[in-house]
Amino acid sequence: MSQNVIEIAHLSKYYGTKCALNDLTLNIPDNAISAIVGANGAGKSTLFQILLGILKPSAGQASVLGCDSRSLTSAIRGLVGFVNEEHSLPDWLSIGQLAKMQQKAYPQWQEDVYQHIIGNFNVSPSQIIGSLSRGERAGVNLSMAMAQQPKLLLLDEPTLGLDVVAKRAFLESLMFSQENCDSAIVYCSHALDEIERLAEHLIIIERGKLRNHSTLEDFVSRVQCWKVQFNGKTPNNNVIPGLLQSSKVDNFHLYTVLDQTDDYASVLQSLGAEKIHSVPVNLVSAVSDFLSKNHAAHH
């Protein structure tokens, strides 16, 4: 059995002439949380629909738990959990009724996992799903998905629209799941602070192409930020090597750069910089600057 829960080779998807996925090759490892990040329209939702067997690729292939996504068996489908931003559940049932139905449908159901996660959300089995808040629905959705003991859990913007309390409960439940359940989690989100807390692997997709797949630490180590003051004329941005973002604060320029050498300060000196300070970079600013640079380049 492969150490990867998802294996994607040269995957492309077109809607007419619009390319949503562009020759994507990617392996996602077992027993880890991998985060997928990209601007709107990057192809993330299309990728999930292909992995779930809802869409067929235009070219290339994807396998999920060793099975081609175009012909997922019911046994494989039973090992894949999916939670999306809609938290779509049958509104007319009570939480208890839905849990009983799911328990029958999934022989591997773990009641203790269900009770632990649902316990974070302050709901009772008699509550009708249609009466729940968005955060409560998210909690019910996650607890049901994890109680099924999935080998793979796909999360598509699951905390979108949740308030601070519900979001915290959701993230803590997810961390419990990762520690106590034998699942790989693929987490698609715009919330970089959540990814920084949860994920081990960072996948960046832009316009259907893979732009990064590494640990979070490895990605952040590629990005540097420099606070610089020039005595004379300020050089044009297009002569600053590796520039992602630049801004001006008082007399200082802030430059965020990608994939540059350790002696970058001497490069700035050669461009006329006098005062040069290295500024720490976190994941949120590194990814934001990386995405905005490439987003701007296409506009």
Output the helix-strand order.
Answer: EEEHEEHEHHHEHEHEEHEEEHEH
Tell me the CATH topology of the largest domain: Rossmann fold
CATH level-4 homologous superfamily of the largest domain: P-loop containing nucleotide triphosphate hydrolases
Number of helix segments?
A: 10
- CATH architecture field of the largest domain: 3-Layer(aba) Sandwich
Give a concise summary.
The protein is α/β, with parallel strands linked by helices.
Please tell me about this protein's structure.
Helices cover 32% and strands 31% of the residues. The chain is of the alpha/beta class and 299 residues long. The protein has two domains: 4-214, P-loop containing nucleotide triphosphate hydrolases (Rossmann fold, 3-Layer(aba) Sandwich); 222-297, Alpha-Beta Plaits. A hairpin with a 2-residue loop joins strand 12 (243-249) and strand 13 (252-258). The two termini are 44 Å apart.
